[in-house]
């Protein structure tokens, strides 16, 4: 995977990040979702590098082989604000003053928080398979609760989900069925497997969700009340074979109050677009970026 890319560990303000980067040209950061690592971009990143971009793919804080800070009662170490600071610090270390950010699933929350908190640094934003956290929670009905019940399960702490997942992570994460080596690619699958089998990673990934229901929602509410918006051009993409359109109708309409300039459309794929339809995703990113 990632021929001609460099794999390094960076210390960003005391936070260890595993990062793969390569290419030359304008910088774009690719942020993975749950329960993936940066290797989910294995079919996308080299194509973007060949198209004239510097491509930076970190494991998010808590995921893969990046650091897993001790949490607190407010889950603040796993807030998207903290993760966004990681991304800015990483790009400082790599020497990029301005950069685009693309995020999928949980990574999209980090991506839009980076754009909101650091508007002078982010040139363009791509969010995939998501709406702002507070919008998802306020629009939650029976259909969302039935399909995305794991949000509430992950949030429980008196009967922690970690015990259930770590008892059989391969089965929980469908590692040999839906998320098989054939579906993910063998090297990407091996990295995914190592992550989900690490109890510390499982705990950190669930802390990401716990932050989403608490501090991340609060930060979104504060920004919305203050009238803060994403200043850079934004592209919303979603998997047409997932449930984004069924849940939200016009996904771009949900993003419009949050962005100065936003457009978007669906891509024929199931949820993990980078793995299931990298060709159309690369075309979309090249055109927008």
From TrEMBL:
Domain AB hydrolase-1: 26-166
Listed InterPro entries: AB_hydrolase_1 (IPR000073), AB_hydrolase_fold (IPR029058), AB_hydrolase_sf (IPR050266), Epox_hydrolase-like (IPR000639)
GO molecular function terms noted in the UniProt entry: catalytic activity
Entry's Gene Ontology cellular component terms: membrane
Gene3D superfamilies: alpha/beta hydrolase
Entry protein name: Haloacetate dehalogenase
Source organism: Kribbella pratensis
